Structures are given as C-alpha cells and as structure tokens.
Amino acid sequence: xxxxxxxxxxxxxxxxxxxxxxxxxxxxxxxxxxxxxxxxxxxxxxxxxxxx
Length: 52
Hints:
52 residues; alpha+beta
C-alpha cells in the first residue's frame, strides 16, 4: 500500500488549485486545474529569461 500517496490525495479540497509546470531550456509552460482535474483557462507560456 502507498499510504503517503493516499494522504496527499485526501489533502485536495474544493478550494485547491493544482498547477502543473513543464520546465524547458528556453520556454516553460504552466496549466491550472481545479480539484476535479478540469483545466482552468489555456496553457500559460513564458520564457526562461531574467524577465520570465
């Protein structure tokens, strides 16, 4: 049994915002999901720079 994973899943509530980030060498991408896994908005793209 993987109790730690189940404990982490139980911490996700209706008010939780889940953000996934794909780190790249020049460009990064981020997506936001609600607690049900439904995507909120579009993919956010930003560059790997001092301003980004």
